Description:
Number of strands: 4
Shape: globular
Largest sheet: 4 strands, antiparallel
Radius of gyration: 16 Å
Structural class: alpha+beta
Distance between the termini: 35 Å
Oligomer: single chain
Amino acid sequence: MSDHSAAPVIPVAAHEPPYYVAVFTSVRTQDQNAYSETNARLEALVKDLPGYLGMDHAQTPGGLGITVSYFRDADALTRWRTDAEHRAAQQRGRAEWYQSYTLHVAKVERSHGFTRAADSPRHG
């Protein structure tokens, strides 16, 4: 949802499947009035939602934004989708902030991760 420029670059940890992901890809318009504030509010709001597992975000130099949100179950995803503040932001996004967007929702059946130990030597 945001640039996350100050956030550490760490992907959301793998969770025990099954769980759900919502993949939101977007291209924004030039009009970004109040986008950052609304985005920060929504990020704070979703973190308090029971069943929310985390979020990854990336932005390409060309302007494509990709946000992947992780939810423990379909009910948690539905609670987020139907949240009143989130719905209002969605409407404003269509009216002002997004040139285009796509939302994909999927059930995760496999998940694993890797993190290099801080003192592991790198071989090249």
